[in-house]
Design goal:
Layout lengths: L2 H25 L2 E8 L9 E10 L4 E6 L4 H12 L3 E10 L4 E9 H6 L3 E8 L5 E8 L19 E8 L8 H17 L8 H27 L1
Parallel strand pairs: 6-8
Antiparallel strand pairs: 1-2, 1-4, 2-3, 4-5, 6-7
Helix pairs in contact: 1-4
């Protein structure tokens, strides 16, 4: 096996390994622990909100289990809305292999209340099966009317989980490239890369236009002399 065949085998194995790794990761479950900040005085104080379990990132089946808002949490959420501040969400992603990653997202507190605590958890997944972003979305209008904000009857979150798979970029055609390199190498070894054509065969595209110009110029001078 020569050098180029060796490189080809290595590239092919790496590509197959990447596909297999992504497949194995998609088959594993992912757990997302949700925490939110509803304290208008300390928006870095996150308390437990609930849990999302995704049995398989491939088919997108998710199960949510969330806590009911307490009176203090509803009061804090209402204060955030009246101050036109953000409702912050912390998502702690835990993989089956023990790896963890934390994501933060936010939406207007008044929009969340306007949507009656109906929100969407947008989970973006890369081609290796790992989560690379989590975003909270609400159906509330962009503009909030603070005087109409009320938390009456708002106790439980109703969350839809949507999984978005990142599109994989096309792989380079390594096979054609290696074959081309091999052909060029073999041609150099046989000496076929040398150009053995004659002078006219090499430069006819330059000689013909000059000849035509000279011919036209000569014919014009003869007409003028008559």
């Amino acid at each position: 096996m020569d050098y180029f065949h060796y490189i080809y085998c290595i590239v092919a194995l790496l590509i197959r390994f990447q596909f297999c790794l992504g497949y194995l990761e998609y088959d594993n479950w992912v757990n997302i622990q949700l925490s939110h900040a509803v304290d208008v005085q300390n928006q870095n104080n996150f308390i437990y909100r609930g849990n999302v379990t995704i049995a398989s990132l491939d088919n997108g089946m998710a199960k949510t289990s969330q806590e009911t808002l307490t009176d203090n949490q509803r009061a804090g959420l209402r204060s955030l809305g009246q101050a036109n501040q953000l409702y912050r969400l912390k998502a702690d992603v835990i993989y089956a292999n023990g790896k963890r990653k934390v994501f933060f997202s936010a939406t207007r507190a008044c929009n969340l209340m306007e949507a009656q605590l109906n929100d969407v958890l947008w989970v973006s997944v890369d081609n290796s099966g790992y989560v690379n972003a989590i975003t909270i979305l609400t159906s509330g209008s962009q503009k909030c009317f603070n005087e109409e904000i009320s938390t009456f009857g708002l106790e439980d979150f109703n969350t839809d989980v949507l999984i978005r798979h990142t599109e994989m970029a096309p792989f380079p055609d390594t096979t054609s490239f290696i074959q081309k390199v091999e052909r060029e190498r073999e041609a150099r070894e046989r000496g076929e890369s040398r150009d053995n054509r004659g002078f006219f065969a090499k430069y006819w595209m330059y000689i013909v236009p000059v000849g035509l110009l000279l011919f036209i110029s000569g014919a014009t001078n003869q007409d003028a002399s008559k």
